[in-house]
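Q: We require from you a single protein entry containing the residue sequence and its fold in token form, and nothing else.
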Amino acid sequence: MLKDAELFYQLLEEGKFPYSPPTTPGRLLDIGGGGLRCALSEEAWKNEQMVIRLEFDGWCADGEEWAYTGNSDDRGRLTVLSRVMWCVPADGGIFEVGVCFTGRVQ
């Protein structure tokens, strides 16, 4: 379900706050409670910070929790801070990246 989410990201330069909303698209490969794995068009470095915005159909915020509604008209949006844990080259000039969540922005 969440694997169909749209992912947008922004790599943060050291101490670069405030940031602008993430607009560079990536592809979500896997997600869990503590982080995600994604495919990006640029290389990321271990411990680099990223802002990630996820948008997914059929989910909505219920306080601090997310609830699956199954209704495609519901569009959940979540923006998080994350830290790059690893990055490896993949086929087609893409990089597969694993991140851990470090905070929720919205």
Q: What stands out?
A: The mean pLDDT is 86. The beta strands are 6-11, 24-31, 35-40, 49-57, 59-62, 65-68, 75-89, 95-104. The two ends are 21 Å apart (CA to CA).
